[in-house]
């Protein structure tokens, strides 16, 4: 046996003994690296799984491309080989490294192909791993003896019992389950579901998450515990018991009764949607990952958790702190968390003062890792969709600009912007025809392809991709000040932004001078919200045309694509879209509406008149109830309004309409 494999054999022995994982960088010629990997595969016990990414390890390995890490979620391996010569995908790597069990080894081969700040960062981190070359290798590591792993499984068993108690205990006592990655949280949901379905042959369980793919561990553990169960698409059957995946927005729209609702990665969803679910479903579990790229933003841990404790005093919270797949002081996990900036700990700010706003460069961030860590801590706390790839995109993409607000040496606010536009006529034509969608051009694609405003694609624009402010200093104008800084110090023709639309976010961007020119017809899978596209383009000649198109499209879709959209969002958008036109209300219209309010005519005879009156009031003061807006402006049916606003039927709905109209009828002229 050659010295390289002798080293691997000894390292493997230490890993097994301590139930930990190690990382190796094999550095030599391509031929030598291939031989080293093949010798490692030949040495590895045949009963243990091997995953190879970007490397063909032969028949006994599962061979995948470097972007296919998501395909092994929920699985386990003991040897992981990763080829750095193939395109680097940090999201995929994060999924893959999570499958490597205690006693396992990660082997990097190949060289990063490009020279830029992102690869400089990664190479610096790779140098901290064990190095094996044709002539030498790092000394064998010394790892402190690990504690028994029994406590980890005891913690998981406690979580399983807590999950089951939500069903067997009193109603309206939700459970919040939090954990870092690798703690067996989602697996515990699957095992507990299996126990519940076995014990109650008629139980009906709904599970929701921002991504069905992330629920693979839940399904795999459920089916492992119930081998007699069957699965059809997203539903598992065991006798008359079922577990079914249901998108959260569908859960909120249907009246189906569930014995238990599981919400995995609950921090992904807007707090108002979670609150609505609590009001509708009385046995709920909210599970989420913290200190990971799944986010958690203190919007969940503070806003929602505090609301839940106030409205459901019997709420329980359990945190799973001990890893299941490896020991708690695992060397590879420590390296991974540092390399991909997973050590997120937002400091508490004692002072609310801040000093300056400035631009940061990728070179600065690599040279000062503390700044890069702070930047990503803020982004992860505020944005669920922040991912490992974002680290490398920011360090690598020359189109991205970074604005940061500092309080002494601490970053308390940041904004990421990407330069767009200045496209050729040929490319713009292809975009309009749907032939091409150039990467990093979301704003110009929206304007040219969906709104037909091609001149905007020729201009230079900046799209604000992300904006985040430390929770302790939110509401103090830091976000607005960063936008003001961008307006004053950067060169562009207009600004744009796209986000999952909520009333508070819409109000923030509107206050900063942005206007909405498009609302996505479908809900975003992660946020559960419609995407709003807004621009700050007061000096652009095309803005008036864009606003007119948006008004026409919005009013047309109110009863179709937007029939289930948050009514507060629609009221804000409709009111803003009508500001540029004059809505007149004649004396005759006022009289007809007044007769209706007093009970003198039926709704259908004055619907058009009432529509004008409501639109006029929206523009003047926006003081219109959701019920009145839904019936008169959205034109929902009587039965739809009754269900949505908890009325007994048409009679009660119409009574509420007449009373509201009568209460503000004399104020129609908005004096």
TrEMBL record:
Reaction catalysis annotation: cytidine(34) in elongator tRNA(Met) + acetyl-CoA + ATP + H2O = N(4)-acetylcytidine(34) in elongator tRNA(Met) + ADP + phosphate + CoA + H(+)
Localisation: Cytoplasm
Record keyword Metal-binding present: no
Binding site for ATP: 156, 325
Domain N-acetyltransferase span(s) in chain numbering: 355-539
InterPro entries the record matches: Acyl_CoA_acyltransferase (IPR016181), GNAT_dom (IPR000182), P-loop_NTPase (IPR027417), TcmA/NAT10_helicase (IPR007807), TmcA/NAT10/Kre33 (IPR032672), TmcA/NAT10_N (IPR013562), TmcA_C_sf (IPR038321), tRNA_acetyltr_TmcA (IPR024914)
GO CC annotations, alphabetized: cytoplasm
A GO BP entry: tRNA acetylation
Pfam families cross-referenced by the UniProt entry: GNAT_acetyltr_2, NAT10_TcmA_helicase, TmcA_N
The enzyme's E.C. designation: 2.3.1.193
Xref: PROSITE patterns: GNAT (PS51186)
Keywords of the record: Acyltransferase, ATP-binding, Cytoplasm, Nucleotide-binding, RNA-binding, Transferase, tRNA processing, tRNA-binding
GO molecular function, one term: 18S rRNA cytidine N-acetyltransferase activity
Main localisation: cytoplasm
Annotated binding of acetyl-CoA, by residue: 467-469
Domain of life: Bacteria
Function text: Catalyzes the formation of N(4)-acetylcytidine (ac(4)C) at the wobble position of tRNA(Met), by using acetyl-CoA as an acetyl donor and ATP (or GTP).
Family the UniProt entry places it in: Belongs to the TmcA family.
Protein name, entry field: tRNA(Met) cytidine acetyltransferase TmcA
Species annotation: Vibrio palustris
């Amino acid at each position: 046996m050659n010295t390289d494999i002798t080293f691997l054999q000894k390292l493997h022995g230490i890993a097994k003994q301590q139930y930990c994982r190690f990382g190796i960088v094999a550095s030599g010629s391509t031929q030598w690296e291939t031989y080293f990997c093949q010798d490692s595969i030949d040495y590895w016990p045949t009963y243990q799984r091997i995953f190879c990414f970007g490397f063909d390890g032969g028949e006994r390995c599962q061979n995948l491309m470097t972007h296919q890490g998501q395909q092994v979620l929920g699985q386990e391996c003991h040897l992981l080989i990763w080829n750095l010569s193939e395109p680097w995908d940090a999201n995929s790597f994060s999924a893959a490294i999570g499958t490597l069990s205690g006693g396992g080894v990660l082997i990097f081969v190949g060289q990063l192909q490009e020279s830029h700040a992102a690869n400089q960062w990664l190479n610096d981190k790779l140098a901290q791993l064990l190095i094996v070359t044709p002539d030498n290798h790092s000394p064998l590591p010394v790892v402190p003896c690990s504690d028994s792993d029994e406590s980890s499984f005891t913690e998981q068993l406690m979580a399983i019992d807590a999950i089951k108690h939500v069903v067997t205990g009193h109603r309206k006592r939700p459970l919040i389950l939090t954990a870092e990655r690798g703690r067996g949280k989602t697996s515990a949901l699957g095992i507990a579901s299996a126990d519940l379905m076995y014990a109650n042959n008629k139980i009906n369980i709904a599970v929701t998450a921002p991504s069905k793919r992330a629920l693979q561990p839940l399904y795999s553990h459920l089916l492992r515990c119930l081998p007699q169960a069957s699965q059809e698409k997203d539903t598992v059957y065991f006798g008359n018991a079922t577990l079914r995946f249901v998108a959260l927005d569908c859960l909120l729209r249907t009246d189906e009764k569930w014995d238990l609702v599981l919400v995995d990665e609950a921090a992904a969803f807007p707090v108002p949607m979670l609150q609505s679910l609590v009001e509708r479903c009385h046995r709920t579990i909210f599970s989420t990952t913290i200190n990971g790229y799944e986010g958690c933003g203190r919007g969940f841990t503070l806003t929602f958790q505090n609301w839940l404790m106030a409205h459901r005093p019997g709420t329980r919270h359990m945190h799973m702190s001990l890893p299941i797949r490896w020991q708690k002081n695992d060397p590879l996990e420590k390296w991974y968390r540092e390399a991909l900036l997973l050590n997120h700990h937002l400091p508490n700010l004692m002072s609310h003062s801040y000093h300056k706003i400035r631009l940061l460069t990728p070179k600065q961030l690599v040279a000062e890792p503390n700044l890069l860590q702070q930047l990503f801590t803020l982004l992860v706390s505020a944005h669920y969709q922040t991912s490992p790839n974002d680290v490398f995109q920011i360090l690598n993409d020359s189109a991205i600009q970074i604005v940061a607000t500092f309080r002494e040496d601490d970053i308390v606010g940041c904004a990421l912007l990407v330069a767009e536009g200045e496209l050729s006529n040929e490319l713009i034509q292809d975009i309009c025809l749907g032939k091409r969608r150039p990467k990093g051009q979301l704003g110009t694609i929206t304007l040219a392809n969906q709104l037909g405003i091609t001149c905007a694609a020729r201009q230079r624009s900046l799209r604000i991709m992300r904006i985040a402010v430390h929770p302790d200093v939110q509401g103090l104008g830091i976000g607005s000040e960063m936008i003001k800084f961008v307006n004053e110090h950067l060169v562009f023709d207009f600004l744009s932004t796209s986000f999952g639309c909520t009333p508070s976010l819409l109000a923030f961007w509107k206050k900063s001078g942005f206007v909405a020119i498009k609302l996505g017809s479908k809900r975003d899978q992660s946020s559960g919200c419609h995407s709003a596209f807004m621009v700050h383009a007061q000096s652009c000649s095309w803005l008036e045309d864009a606003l007119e198109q948006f008004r026409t499209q919005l009013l047309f879709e109110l009863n179709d694509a937007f029939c289930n959209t948050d009514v507060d969002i629609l009221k804000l958008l409709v009111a803003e879209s009508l500001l540029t036109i004059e809505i007149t209300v004649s004396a005759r219209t006022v009289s007809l509406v007044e007769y209706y309010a007093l009970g003198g005519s039926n709704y259908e005879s004055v619907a058009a008149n009432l529509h004008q009156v409501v639109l006029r009031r929206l523009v003047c003061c926006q003081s219109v109830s959701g019920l009145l807006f839904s019936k008169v402006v959205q034109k929902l049916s009587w039965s739809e309004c009754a269900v949505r606003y908890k009325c007994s039927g048409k009679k009660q709905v119409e009574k509420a309409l007449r009373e509201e109209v009568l209460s503000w009828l004399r104020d129609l002229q908005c004096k």
